[in-house]
What we know:
Elements: E1 6-12, E2 18-24, H1 30-45, H2 54-74, H3 86-99, E3 106-112, E4 117-123, H4 126-142, E5 152-154, H5 159-162, E6 170-172, H6 190-202
Antiparallel strand pairs: 1-2, 3-4, 5-6
Helix pairs in contact: 1-4, 2-4, 3-4
Amino acid sequence: MWAEDLWQVKSINEKGDHVQRTLCFPDVNASLKNEFKYAVWYQWNQGTWQRYHKRGQREVLYSLRYLGLWLQALEWKEHSFLEHSLEFWECSLRSWLVQTEQYTPRSSKRLMAATHTYKKYFTEDRRIYVFRTIYHTLMEAYDDRKPMEKDIWDLQTDAECRSIYRNLGTFSILLLSNNPGFARWRNTTWSTICLCTVPAIRRGN
């Protein structure tokens, strides 16, 4: 499978029928292509995209197609996406989408209970969100620290935390960095922090 640049993946069409769709990987250097393939494979089989509704998966496939066109158009020579920061790649992708007249940030509005008025929100182009997922997947793959030593814990995939907190997704220890007592925890084991802190966050403290 890894040698093929055309993958058949399960998806859904506009009518809601289950179909097989073809995912074509970009014609870029082998190192970037392999990282791209790994991130897609991981997300589609056990990551966030695997948990999406089929319609959401169809939108991801649409975004991946454009990510491939972007990578081909700029002919990157890098051997890894992690040679540059996420901000670097996002800037390049956003510029390419604008130049090709395809940049489509989304907007939504929400009724504010306090003022009874609508507040408008703007969110990034979906393709940038998809690339962020790819980049963070690669960061996780190259990070060889133990799960409890990382800054963000996946409480659903790590056995130690899953046995304690079954209904939580991810937990970022960086959320605590502004807490006045955070400095006192630097010599505390991660497992102890998990045991003591996550229940407080669940209660909203």
